[in-house]
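Hey, can you fold this one?
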Amino acid sequence: MRMSLGLTFRAVKGLLMVNRGRQCSHGSIGLFVPPSPPVDPEKVKDLQRFITLSKRLLVMTGAGISTESGIPDYRSEKVGLYARTDRRPIQHGDFVRSAPIRQRYWARNFVGWPRFSSHRPNPAHWALSNWERLGKLHWLVTQNVDALHTKAGNQRLTELHGSMHRVLCLHCGEQTARGELQERFKALNPTWSAEAQGLAPDGDVFLTEEQVQTFQVPSCARCGGPLKPDVVFFGGTVNPDKVNFVHRRVQEADSLLVVGSSLQVYSGYRFILTAREKQLPIAILNIGPTRSDDLACLKLDSRCGELLPLIDAR
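Sure. Predicted structure:
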């Protein structure tokens, strides 16, 4: 499917080429960020007051914090994946059951990986890293799989849905780095080439069935089992131990800030319900409505990277 974003990806002998069309001539950083009103100074004061009063702040982030790094989200009006295309993310059950589906997934991921892995933290990520360094951030929970919080230096961090930068074996559970798998892909497919259009939030790109038919997928080097990104696909479930761990962090917190999430996915929304039961003050920074606006004492519709650096967390 040809996308209207002007992004073309071409894998040739294991290398990735990205051609930017005219629509991206000014860069893709703001390409996936929905329109938002100018920062309201009064709202900045309100958020500053919220952060100042917080002593054990828990922050939950979603795809909206990474759009300013050039990674699209799913649900944003006009610019999210669902608004731009009828494509939908892969389902856990389909990936596990079908070798052809795994082949198609990994071919697309192989093409998209060099670009996806090169994304860098934006000012919002750096602000939250600084909050941790200053002792303001009690814990950070991200629904994102892009590892941008890790790249920014956060350590008090739970990656709720995993990370695309890790790969695991579905049989023995062996975990390896995604970069190592890329080298194995190149060795198995020295002359394979494909051109794709578009970009998805998890680094996926769009290829035709004909393009993926000859793509070779390696197996686990330890047991020969099938490999899967260490992420929770749609239709999958978050590890119960991880869920319980985050619930404990919410119980320890005295306030909760949501950054860049519509909270439509229950895996993240449930922690808002826990915060509500504990009667924690909740603030939400997200462009557009969320599932929990009625539970928040403060709602802000601004770019995360514009607003968070304005806050003094000392």
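Residues 99-117 form the longest helix (19 residues). Let me know if you want another pass with a different chain boundary.
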